[in-house]
Design a protein that fits this description.
Shape: globular
Radius of gyration: 18 Å
Strand content: 25-35%
Largest sheet: 5 strands, antiparallel
Helix content: 25-40%
CATH superfamily: Creatinase/methionine aminopeptidase superfamily
Strand order of the largest sheet: 10-9-11-16-17
Number of helices: 5
Distance between the termini: 15 Å
């Protein structure tokens, strides 16, 4: 079974006589929209993988951004972030205590021990994917490893609650409780979001919440879940460049994100390779 067939089966149901019987796209995006989004999500995930593989001591964040942009464009897609509300690059690349929206620069040279969060997306056929991950640059501290592992797992804790009939509060609470029980701060000023024809759509997808509260999840919804988790306090500040967000206490931050689709058979991670 090809990847497209597997995606179709997960999204739309069983195949009988070469016809896919729908199992849950009663509301939200159509089969055609989801299929088009899958291509954008695949390219986004591949670009993130390529960018992450470039994270090494001595490499500039500008070079990583160049690699990501070149890959996205080689697939016939456009980097979603480039010039989005004036953002000057194809990827947000944030180092150590930078939470999100780090601007790639030739002068930002990675060093062994850094942790590097890369957030990027690709747009093709009018639809976009969005994903992020935090990568280790060389050998990193045990504290940094624990933060990265916790943040990544919290993403999957949230995804596990992204089920038809559930609420966004279920997703946020799963992330929040997992991280706060381990002593970490959950950023509240920035959230996940709907994604599809535009990079940012309704609804907002907070990384905190109350079970049973918030927007109800229905099949066909496509959302980006993206915990931003701080080693210390949850509070953040924005630098004078108007983009880069850092922790207020100077401690590390990690960031993971997937674009998912809500289906009647469970969440489909569209940006997972």
């Amino acid at each position: 079974m090809s990847n497209e067939e597997r995606y179709k089966l997960a999204l739309f149901g069983v195949v009988r006589n070469n016809f896919i019987l729908p199992v849950g796209i009663e509301q939200g995006r159509s089969e055609k929209e989801i299929r088009q989004m899958l291509e954008a999500c695949r390219i986004s995930a591949e670009a993130l993988k390529v960018a992450g593989e470039a994270v090494e001591p001595g490499v500039s964040t500008w070079e990583i951004d160049r690699i990501a942009r070149k890959y996205i464009e080689s697939k016939g897609a456009k980097p979603t972030f480039l010039n989005y509300n004036g953002f000057p690059a194809s990827a947000c690349i944030s180092i150590n205590d930078e939470v999100i929206h780090g601007i790639p620069d030739k002068s930002h040279i990675l060093r062994a021990g850094d942790i590097v969060s890369i957030d990027l997306g690709a747009c093709i056929n009018g639809y976009t994917g969005d994903n992020a991950a935090t990568f280790a640059c060389g050998d990193i501290s045990q504290e940094a490893k624990r933060l990265i592992e916790t943040t990544e797992q919290s993403l999957y804790e949230g995804i596990s609650k992204a089920v038809s009939g559930g609420r966004l509060g279920d997703v946020g609470y799963a992330i929040q409780s997992y991280c706060e029980s381990r002593g970490y701060g959950v950023v509240r000023e920035y959230t996940g979001h709907g994604v599809g024809a535009a990079l940012h759509e309704d609804p907002a997808v907070p990384n905190y919440g109350t079970p049973g509260r918030g927007v109800r999840l229905v099949p066909g919804m496509t959302i980006a879940i993206e915990p931003m988790i701080n080693e210390g306090k949850a509070s953040v500040k924005t630098l004078s460049n108007g983009w880069t967000v850092k922790t207020t206490d100077g401690k590390l931050s990690a960031h993971f994100e997937h674009t998912i689709a809500i289906t009647s058979s469970g969440p489909l991670i569209m940006t997972k390779l």
